[in-house]
Specification:
This is Phosphoribosylaminoimidazole-succinocarboxamide synthase. Belongs to the SAICAR synthetase family. It catalyses: 5-amino-1-(5-phospho-D-ribosyl)imidazole-4-carboxylate + L-aspartate + ATP = (2S)-2-[5-amino-1-(5-phospho-beta-D-ribosyl)imidazole-4-carboxamido]succinate + ADP + phosphate + 2 H(+). Keywords: ATP-binding, Ligase, Nucleotide-binding, Purine biosynthesis. By secondary structure, the chain is an alpha+beta fold. It has 5 helices and 16 strands. The strands form 3 sheets. Strands 9, 10, 11, 12, 13, 14, 15 and 16 form an 8-stranded antiparallel sheet that branches. A 5-stranded antiparallel sheet has the order 1-2-3-8-7, with helices on one face. The longest helix has 23 residues, at 152-174. The structure holds adenosine-5'-triphosphate and magnesium ion (MG).
């Protein structure tokens, strides 16, 4: 097993069969010890955060599999905080696709002159480039095409997949009286056949979820969702 990349919240290893192994760490994004799913720095370490993130990720990826949505998921070992995935190449140098159901986070910071906090948004999709140095700049469909990151056809595919997956997560959370405000995904092309699939993770670290109008921290979210599972 060869370590090929150390991310902020996961370490990536190459397995002998060509798959990747993602090891979920207890580091979470945020600033000055405060968790923020939109942050580009490791803000704090919470014991158990890695396993909790993986447990939720496994839960959602297995639901997606049942529904026939293409992902990189192979299997997961929660005790070891590891997930085996099919190797993919990312678009450009990495990109995030966000689906917004209510105005919070960076959307609210940017457009606060026109929206109120928590205002409902109709499955609004936007793309940001993974570029910590430039604070993950948002980019339009035209920009993605012009810079050779994503064709217009691929953008359509990703937008539709993003809304479909977002809706599935939203529906699962609603079963526990939790409301999804926003969620971010990563996509890639599988090395084996170039298919566009969902990669990375689906955990509390990638979404904002609320219960009774109160934001739910990732560890708490994992407990609420997995209760009785
Ligand atoms: N199936 C996959 N194939 C290839 N790369 C993947 C796959 N799934 C996830 N990744 C990549 O693995 C990394 C996961 O690590 P982590 O989430 O810690 O990184 P990050 O902090 O989001 O980003 P950075 O890359 O800026 O460190 C990301 O770069 C993600 O794009
Ligand atoms: Mg990440």
């Amino acid at each position: 097993m060869k370590l090929i990349y150390q991310g902020k919240t996961k370490d990536i290893y190459a397995l002998e069969d060509g798959n990747y192994l993602l090891r979920f760490k207890d580091d979470v994004t945020g600033e000055n010890g405060v968790f923020d799913p939109g942050a580009n720095t490791v803000g704090l370490t919470i014991e158990g955060a890695g396993k909790a993130g993986l447990r939720l990720t496994k839960f959602f990826f297995e639901i997606l599999k049942e529904k026939g949505i293409p992902t990189h998921y192979v299997d997961a070992n929660v005790e070891e905080a590891t997930m085996t995935v099919k190797t993919a190449t990312v678009f450009g140098k990495g990109m995030e696709v966000i689906c917004r159901y209510r105005a919070v986070g960076s959307f609210l910071r940017r457009y606060g002159m026109y929206v109120e906090e928590g205002q409902s948004l109709d499955r609004f999709v936007e793309v940001t480039l993974k570029d910590d140095e430039r604070q993950d700049p948002p980019i339009t469909e035209d920009g993605l095409d012009m810079l050779g990151i994503l064709s217009k056809e691929e953008y359509k595919t990703l937008k539709a997949l993003t809304q479909r997956i977002g809706d599935i997560v939203k529906e699962e959370l609603a079963k526990k009286s939790i409301e999804l405000y926003d969620i971010k995904f990563e996509f890639g092309r599988l090395k084996e056949n170039n298919e566009i699939v969902l990669i990375d993770e689906i955990s509390g670290g990638n979404m904002r979820a609320y219960k009774d109008g109160q934001y739910i921290e990732p560890l708490k979210l994992e407990k609420l969702v997995m209760e009785g599972e």
